[in-house]
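Hi V.,

You were right to ask for the full record rather than a summary. Here it is.
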Amino acid sequence: MSFKNILDYKSFYRRNLPHYQPESGIFFITYRLNFDLPLEIIKKLLQQKKEFARRERKVFNKDKKSEKLNFEKQRFYLIDNYLGLCKNGPKYLSDPNIAQIVKDSLFFMNKKQYELYCFCIMPNHVHVLMKPMEKENGDFYSFAEILKGHKGSTARKANKLLNKTGSFWHKESYDHLVRSQREFEDTVWYILNNPVKAHLVDDYRKWKHTWIAEDVKKEMGL
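Predicted structure:
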């Protein structure tokens, strides 16, 4: 995998807030079904936010980016651990037909809008490792474009299959820039082992809704 020039930033907008996406980078993206988190998790998230604000006031500007990255990782792991072990809430993605809709959509835009390296479809959320591709005009596809099309098409098909209406996916998603080969491999392992961590299987190879690109398999000796 190439990690050259991954910090060449450009900005785009997501939900009216400025967000920065490197022009050439590999990203770990997580998105989930639309449902409310329990009060205990919300309280923990608020506590994390207060602690982050307190720490941020005490650090120099050069350390603020590191503090923010650590804060975002803490929030992600808190929510992801809850999602993996969640006994309540919708688990539509456990339905093989719904999972297939998500798989087909991810594969459909592979090599068109992004290069797909690995993904895992859990009962209530999805992990994806991808690299947005360059357009003919020199711009790169943004997360806003990629996820809008993917979430929109899969939501329509899933709702039709489930005979339901309303929001299928939660409006927010988590994205993290992978900064090195070591982090790339760690992220692949995190994705592959998510079903094991959630006690859904005892070996990642037994989970039917995980995929990894052949060149990544060879590179990592899987």
